[in-house]
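seq:
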Amino acid sequence: MTPSVFQLPVWFDLGATFAFALTGALAAIKRGYDVVGLLSLAIATSLGGGLIRDGIFLQQGVTPLLTNPHYLYAIGAAAVIGLILGERVHRFNRLIAVVDALGLGAYACFGVQKSLLVGLGPTAAVFVGVVNAVGGGLLRDVITREEPLVFKPGQFYVLVALAGAVGFVVLTAQFGMAPTPAAFTAIGLTFVFRVLTIAFNWRTEAVSSVKILPE
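struct:
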């Protein structure tokens, strides 16, 4: 690891993977899936964004998400806890929301940097960073044949990831900040944005309800 490259701390990366996998496991429990379905949704939700990033956009060979067994251990632990606690896991919703808010910004920044390192321009890198952050939930909804939640009116989520990705690019490209402090600054701002979104229920609106021109 070099000081010029932002790397997610291992404990943080695995913790976020665990939290995202747990949300996938809960979605499977709500739908009455069996253990195979539960594991599949846990994997898709936790690793989906990274798999889309590495397999479709960057095409850098086998993703580290599959070569490092610790990611699968974290997912397995989340699946087991989901099975044991079931609906009672919702008592930990606040903690899960905090980890999710931190992971959203971190994965957005990580996806942006990885894209820039392989030669993508800033705009394309921001797009890949957002997909890296929200792709797991999108893949989960596609698998379960649900309309993707990220496309529906609701609390700011994709916009939060976009803010983190853009913030990282601006701090590094425009202000010349080193990647690591830039990433942690962007993660912090993204976290605050997401927490405020939850606290004040800031929401997007359906396109049909937005009036641009007077009638």
